[in-house]
Specification:
Elements: E1 2-5, H1 9-19, H2 30-42, E2 46-54, E3 61-68, E4 73-81, E5 85-95, E6 101-110, E7 115-123, E8 129-145, E9 148-169, E10 172-190, E11 201-213, E12 224-235, E13 247-259, E14 265-266, E15 269-276
Parallel strand pairs: 1-3
Antiparallel strand pairs: 2-3, 4-5, 5-6, 6-7, 7-8, 8-9, 9-10, 10-11, 11-12, 12-13, 13-14, 13-15
Length: 295
């Protein structure tokens, strides 16, 4: 017999379908329990997922213990690093407590490179979700060559993103979307060696993501893995890029949790990004360092 602790009956029936168990399950193997735990972790709905066996002898009762992630939250964070010195992050999320619900979120970061984001979504966390977001970010960027500073640039980035996501297959998530980025360059200082001719421009991107998630916890995981593979087709007018063929960007991110003791866990990871095309917009180029993951 299989039961869930931490869910109401309506959500429990849907979660049973996600993990592949029903009320009349017969013999359940350990591998089936581990697969169910991975599927629950992959939904992104829970901050913790565990299980226990009840009963003095077989057949045992399997109880999955879950802790739901709060849909309404207010967060505050502070970060110190050598690149931006100090940053303050503020976030607020509001949602209706329904299986199919609307969610509205606002995020702001106060730092040398500040940004603000508004995000709305509608759908079910266990099936499909439609999302729309707008972000503005102000960037101060310095480029170096062999340790010597070559240029300073200030620019603003307006981003509008429309996506159709959470098409779940167990702990796989598929996302497709349309994104518009407008880069507004305010100033550019370069030396004679490094010359870049920059103009404000807009980039329209069609993209897709495949994400696999089996980490047991969102923060400080002890087991599982996280994998993301994505590709985008980038244009200047929905069809081509400045009269030439669109260029593509392909990336992957991988992280694995390897626990060697109750207090020590290693998190090795790898990422890569490849650009394909004749003409590639300057904001899409691969750079080492900076604040953009995978770039």
């Amino acid at each position: 017999h299989v039961s869930f602790e931490g869910l109401d009956m309506q959500k429990e029936n849907i979660v049973r379908r996600v993990v592949g168990f029903n009320h009349k399950d017969g013999t359940i193997k350990p591998s089936m329990i581990q697969a169910a735990v991975s599927n629950l972790q992959g939904t992104g709905l829970f901050t913790e997922v565990n299980y226990r066996l009840e009963g003095a002898e077989a057949p045992y009762r399997v109880v999955f213990v879950v802790k739901e992630k709060s849909m309404n939250s207010i967060g505050l964070g502070v970060r110190f690093d050598s690149e931006e010195m100090a940053a303050v992050l503020l976030n607020a999320t509001f949602s209706t407590r329904k299986l199919k619900h609307s969610m509205f979120g606002i995020t702001a970061r106060l730092s040398e490179n500040p940004y603000g984001e508004l995000k709305w979504s509608y759908g079910s966390d266990l099936s499909r979700k439609l999302s729309l977001s707008y972000m503005f970010k102000y960037n101060k960027q310095s480029l170096y060559y062999k340790g010597d500073k070559q240029s300073n640039m200030d620019f603003g980035n307006h981003k509008v993103d429309l996506s159709y996501s959470n098409i779940r297959i167990k702990n796989l998530r598929l996302t497709v979307g349309l994104r518009f980025d407008y880069y507004d360059y305010h100033s550019l200082l370069t030396n004679d060696v490094w010359h870049v001719d920059l103009h404000s421009q807009g980039i329209v991107s069609y993209y897709g993501l495949i994400q696999y998630e089996s980490l047991d916890r969102r923060h400080n995981p002890r087991k599982g893995a996280s994998l993301e593979f994505g590709a985008s087709l980038n244009t200047s007018n929905f069809v081509n890029y400045k009269g030439d063929s669109p260029y593509s960007a392909i990336h992957f991110n991988y992280l694995m949790a390897i626990s060697v003791s109750k207090r020590v866990t290693f998190l090795p990871g790898a990422f890569g990004r490849v650009l394909v095309g004749e003409q590639i917009a300057y904001p899409s180029l691969n750079l080492m360092g900076g604040t953009v993951p995978g770039r």
